[in-house]
Structures are given as C-alpha cells and as structure tokens.
Amino acid sequence: MEKTLTKVGSLKVGGLWISKKAKEEFSNITEDLTVRKPPKSLPDLLREYNLPADLFPQNVVCYEFDESKAKLIVYLSSPCEASFKDSSVTT
After folding, report:
1. Residue 79 bridge partners (DSSP)
2. CA neighbours within 13 Å on the CB side: how many for 22?
C-alpha cells in the first residue's frame, strides 16, 4: 500500500497520508503567515497618507485597506454620522 501511495504522489506525515500538493499548500500558507507584517494601526495608516489620525471615532472594530486601489473600508461597532463643510450629512 505504501508503495502505491508513494507512486501517486502522497507522503506519510505522522500517521496520515497527504498528497505532495497538499504539503506544498501547507508550506505556502506557513510562509505567508511568517512573511506578513503585522497590520498598521488605523491612525498610523491615516498619518502615512497625510490624514488626521483621529479622523474616525473610537468605535472602530477593524479596517481593510487595498493599497493598489487606495481603498479604505472602516468597520464601526455602531452607526456614525458625519457632517462636512458644505453642511451635508451622511450616515
């Protein structure tokens, strides 16, 4: 049985048989996790783009930033109302 599984591209890891492809994917995931830098705090990210660090309220849960599109999505724990110099209001 071991010879057959080895021929079809599987490896024995501990007591489990996994495919070479699965092992490769696990390796890639591990590399991704070790190479990634910890995310910047939202105030640090805002300062980097010359925006005020306190632009958002204190109830920020998390944020997503797509650097290639310069798109920032901020998740708040409750609704927030913003007003602008032209007196418009949005929620």
Report:
1. none
2. 9
Residues 17-60 have pLDDT tens digits of 566 676 677 676 666 555 556 678 999 999 999 999 999 988 89
Q: Are 28 and 18 in contact (CB under 8 A)?
A: no
Distance CA 44, CA 38 (A): 12
Assigned token pair, 30: 């591990």
d(CA 5, CA 11): 7
- Predicted TM-score (pTM) of this structure: 0.51
Separation CA 55–CA 51 (nearest Å): 7
* Contact between 74 and 42 (Cβ < 8 Å): yes
